[in-house]
Design goal:
The complex is a heterodimer of chains A (about 375) and B (about 230). Chain A is α+β, with helices and mostly antiparallel strands and about 375 residues long. Chain A is built from 15 helices and 13 strands. In chain A, helix 1 crosses helix 13 and helix 13 runs antiparallel to helix 14. By secondary structure, chain B is α/β, with parallel strands linked by helices. Classes of the chains: A alpha+beta (about 375), B alpha/beta (about 230). At the A-B interface, helix 1 and helix 12 of A face helix 1 and helix 2 of B.
C-alpha cells in the first residue's frame, strides 16, 4: 500500500514530475557524455602496456634523436625488441580530417604491438611494400578505404605529398585498442627526406623498447638515459603509460573543466529534484500528519518520500542512459579522429545510475525530515 | 465500581506563542466510562481540540496523567504512542483527511497495514467497515469523486476498522450540510449504541451535542458540566 501511495504520489502532479524527469534525463545524459569524454581522453593510457618503454629527447618531444642510438639501446639489459619512428602529422584531403599517423619501423613495431591484429597475408604485404601502410578498421570505415587503395597523405611536419598504399586493415585485440591510426614505413619517410630535406635524415622522434619483464622497467629506463647523459641529445625514458599521461596532462585544464561541469550538472539536478520534493511534501504535510495520527512511524513516512524521489531520478536516469548510447554514437561519428574509443563504459553506466539514486536520496532528505517532524495538531489545524 | 476507560488527573497544557506561554488547559480531571458518548463543547480556543489530542495520544500534557484502558499514555515514547494509537484509537476529523491518491476502500484498509493481519483479512475487515457506513458501492471511488458526507463516512469506516477502544471525532459535522451532518451523527450514534464504542466528540453544533449521552463544557481551560440547555 505504501508503494501504491509512493507511485501514485509521483504521478500526482504529472507536469511537475514530467519536467523533473526531463531535467534528470538531460543531466544524466550530460553526465554520461562528459564522463565518456574524460574516459576517451584516457583511453590510450588504459591501453598502454607495462612491457613497453618510450624514449624521447629529454628537452621536448619536438626535438629528434639520432638513429644511431638504436644500436646502443638494443644492448640495454631487459630490452628484447626495439622500434622507432616519427609522428608524421599528415592529413587526408582536408586538414580538419585529423587522425593519428606514424612512420615506424614496421616489423619491430608490429612485434611490440600484438594488439594490432592483421592477417598473415596483410602483414607480409605491408612489410614487403616500402610505401605500404596499414590502417585501423574504424579509420578505413571513416574514409571508405580498402586494401590496395592509394591514399595521398599531405604532410604537415614533413611537408609535401606522401602517397601510401593500404596493405592491411588491422583490428584491435580488445575494445581499448585504437583502431583509428595509420602506420607506414619509417624508411619511406627517411629515404624521401634524403632527397628533399637532408638535414632531417636519420632522426627519429621516439624509440619504443619492449621489455622481458615489467619489473625491470625502471632499471632499463635509467640505463637507457644513462647511455646518453651529457650527450648533445639527452634522452628521457619512461613507461608507455607515463609517456601517454604526459599528453593527457597537456589537456589537464580542459579535463578539470569537464569534470567541474559534470559536477555542476549534478548539483543543478540536486536542486531541481530537491525543489520538486520540497514542494510536494509541503503540499502533503496534512497527509503525513494523518499517517502519523494513524500510527505510521517516521521510518515508513520517510521511506515513502525517499522512494518517490529515487523513483523520479531513477526513471530519468534510465531514460538518460537509454538516450546516451545513440547520442555518444553520433558524437563519436562527428569527432571520430579525436577520440578513437568514444564509447560509454560499463563503469559510467553504473556511476550514472548510482548518481541518480544518490541525487534522489539527497534531494529528499530535507523534505522527509520536514514530514516526519511535522506536528500533528499544527498540520491538521487542531489547536484550540 | 469499574474503572473508567479514560481517566485524566490534573492535566495542564500550555503553548508557546511569540515567546510567551499561553495556558490552554488547567488541572483538568475527567473520567469517561467505557461505552460513553461524550460531547465536548465550548467557544473557539477554549481548549476542546487540545483536550481531544491529549486523550487520543496525539500530544502530551505539561503536567498530570492520562490513563486509557488502564495504561498511562503520558509515559509512552513517541513510537510507543504511535503504536498504541494504531491499535486503540479511531480518528474522525472535520475535513475528513482521506489520502487523496487512495480509493475509499484503500483509505479504510490503510490503518490495518499496521495490524498483524493477512491481506485477505485486511480486505474483509475493510469491506465490512465500508458496508457498515453504507458505502459498499463507492469502494473504488477516490475521495475527489465523493461528496463531503460520503468522505466523512469513509473516514468513520477508517476509524472503526481497527475495532478501537475509543473513537475521537473533532467537529465531524463542521464541514457538512444539514442532511450529511445528520447521517454522520446517525453513524456515530450507531457506533456507540450498537457497537458499544466509546466516542468523544468535539463540536460547536448544539444538534450534534444533543446526540451525545453526556456533554461537558470547556471554557478558558476549565471543564464543567454543560448547562442544562447546551444551546444557551
Amino acid at each position: 500500500m505504501l508503494l501504491k501511495i509512493l507511485l501514485r504520489n509521483a504521478a500526482r502532479h504529472r507536469l511537475r514530475t514530467a519536467l523533473t524527469v526531463a531535467g534528470t534525463v538531460v543531466a544524466i545524459l550530460a553526465f554520461v557524455l562528459l564522463q565518456t569524454v574524460v574516459d576517451a581522453w584516457y583511453a590510450g593510457v588504459a591501453a598502454s602496456s607495462a612491457h613497453r618503454l618510450v624514449t624521447r629527447n629529454a628537452i621536448s618531444l619536438i626535438f629528434p634523436l639520432p638513429i644511431h642510438y638504436r644500436d646502443r639501446i638494443r644492448q640495454v639489459e631487459g630490452v628484447t625488441t626495439l622500434s622507432y619512428g616519427n609522428w608524421f602529422g599528415g592529413y587526408y584531403q582536408d586538414p580538419k580530417n585529423f587522425f593519428v599517423n606514424l612512420a615506424m619501423e614496421p616489423a619491430s613495431y608490429l612485434a611490440l604491438y600484438p594488439e594490432y591484429q592483421l592477417s598473415a597475408e596483410e602483414r607480409a604485404a605491408f612489410l614487403q611494400d616500402r610505401r605500404g601502410a596499414i590502417v585501423g578498421r574504424k579509420l578505413s570505415e571513416r574514409f571508405g578505404w580498402k586494401v590496395g587503395d592509394t591514399v595521398p597523405l599531405k604532410g604537415t611536419v614533413f611537408p609535401g605529398d606522401w602517397p601510401v598504399t593500404i596493405r592491411g586493415v588491422y583490428r584491435g585485440r580488445d575494445r581499448n585498442t585504437d583502431e583509428t591510426q595509420l602506420f607506414f614505413h619509417w624508411d619511406y619517410l627517411n629515404e624521401t627526406l634524403r632527397a628533399t630535406d637532408p638535414r632531417r635524415v636519420d632522426q627519429v622522434g621516439i624509440y619504443v623498447a619492449g621489455l622481458a619483464r615489467p619489473e625491470g622497467a625502471a632499471a632499463a629506463a635509467a640505463a637507457i638515459d644513462a647511455l646518453f647523459a651529457s650527450s648533445a641529445a639527452e634522452t628521457l625514458t619512461e613507461s608507455e603509460q607515463a609517456f601517454l599521461l604526459g599528453f593527457v596532462a597537456m589537456s589537464e585544464t580542459i579535463l578539470v573543466a569537464t569534470r567541474v561541469v559534470a559536477l555542476v550538472v549534478i548539483a543543478t539536478l540536486l536542486a531541481v529534484v530537491g525543489n520538486t520534493m520540497a514542494m510536494s511534501v509541503r503540499e502533503r504535510l496534512s497527509e503525513y500528519a494523518v499517517l502519523k495520527t494513524l500510527g505510521f512511524g517516521t521510518g515508513r513516512i520517510a521511506l515513502s518520500i525517499l522512494g518517490e524521489s529515487v523513483l523520479i531520478t531513477l526513471v530519468g536516469g534510465v531514460l538518460g542512459l537509454a538516450l546516451a548510447f545513440p547520442v555518444t554514437g553520433r558524437f563519436a561519428a562527428v569527432v571520430g579522429g579525436l577520440f578513437p574509443n568514444f564509447a560509454v563504459e560499463p563503469r559510467t553506466v553504473l556511476e550514472a545510475l548510482g548518481t541518480a539514486v544518490l541525487v534522489g536520496l539527497a534531494a529528499a532528505v530535507l523534505p522527509a525530515r520536514q514530514a516526519v517532524r511535522v506536528g500533528i495538531a499544527e498540520a491538521l489545524g487542531r489547536v484550540g | 465500581m469499574t474503572a473508567p476507560l479514560v481517566e485524566l488527573r490534573g492535566v495542564s497544557k500550555s503553548y508557546r506563542r511569540g515567546g510567551q506561554r499561553v495556558p490552554v488547559l488547567a488541572g483538568i480531571d475527567l473520567d469517561i466510562p467505557a461505552g460513553e458518548f461524550l460531547a465536548l463543547m465550548g467557544p473557539s480556543g477554549s481548549g476542546k481540540s487540545t483536550l481531544l489530542n491529549l486523550i487520543a495520544g496525539l500530544d502530551q500534557p505539561d503536567t498530570g496523567t492520562i490513563r486509557v484502558g488502564g495504561l498511562d499514555i503520558t509515559g509512552l515514547e513517541e513510537g510507543e504512542l504511535a503504536r498504541w494509537r494504531a491499535e486503540h484509537v479511531g480518528f474522525v476529523f472535520q475535513f475528513y483527511y482521506l489520502i487523496p491518491v487512495l480509493t475509499a476502500f484503500e483509505n479504510v484498509e490503510l490503518p490495518l497495514l499496521l495490524a498483524p493481519l493477512s491481506r485477505r483479512e485486511r480486505r474483509e475487515h475493510a469491506a465490512l467497515a465500508l458496508h457498515l457506513v453504507g458505502l459498499d458501492d463507492r469502494a473504488d471511488h477516490y475521495p475527489r469523486q465523493l461528496s463531503g458526507g460520503q468522505q466523512q463516512r469513509v473516514a468513520i469506516a477508517r476509524a472503526l476498522v481497527v475495532d478501537p477502544l475509543l473513537v475521537v471525532a473533532d467537529e465531524p459535522t463542521g464541514d457538512l450540510d444539514r442532511v450529511s451532518a445528520g447521517e454522520v451523527l446517525d453513524l456515530l450514534t450507531r457506533l456507540n449504541g450498537e457497537l458499544g464504542k466509546t466516542v468523544v466528540m468535539v463540536t460547536h453544533d448544539p444538534r450534534a451535542g444533543r446526540r451525545a449521552r453526556k456533554v461537558q463544557y470547556l471554557d478558558k481551560g476549565v471543564l464543567s458540566d454543560a448547562p442544562e440547555d447546551p444551546s444557551a
